[in-house]
Design goal:
Length: about 220
Amino acid sequence: MGQKGDSMSDILARIEAKKADMETARNNMALGIKYSSRSLGGHTTQYRKLMREAGLEIVVISTPKVTPQVGKPCRYKACKGRDHKAHGEKCPVASARGKTGGTNGLGDVKARVGSLNGRFTGFRECGCPQRQHLPTCHKAGLSAAKIALINEAVSIKKIININPITWRYTADCITTEAVSFMLKGIAGVCAGCDTEMLAIKASKVNKNDIREARMRVICDACDTQ
């Protein structure tokens, strides 16, 4: 009887230890620790085996399944915290926002005349937009600061001696990247500052000079002016 009592107490102690191990595994699963579910399965199997040896009723606390939340509760009071994403729907309050304006709306805030620009109302008699005159218009009231900047830009171009490039905004002007495979070893001269360089190092070239020995090109400095 003594040995049987000692063995029963040992089994009961091991059962309590397995209960503690199972609780620890459940806590680790809640924290997202790796292999926690595998540890819980092993401890549960050993716990049931010990309970059968002791002749006791097996009681296993099942781990509750928590349904993950798909979205967040809606922030509008009318929705009363409904999770629209979980139900596969759009928020009716948010969807109704912004319908008073635009081309199909009736609101005064976003009412527009043009279909592309809400502030566009037409042109002036001089040809400038209604919002303000262009800087090149004779009716434009330029400030002293703008006049100083324009004069400074003109003087800089005169100092660095930039020639007017007549073909710059025509179809003959193409980027160097477009024909770089045809420009190896070809010399070029910048049409703006007369700087000699390799045509492949220029910013833009004249497509009519691709087969010439010296090409008309535009360097990076003149291309930014």
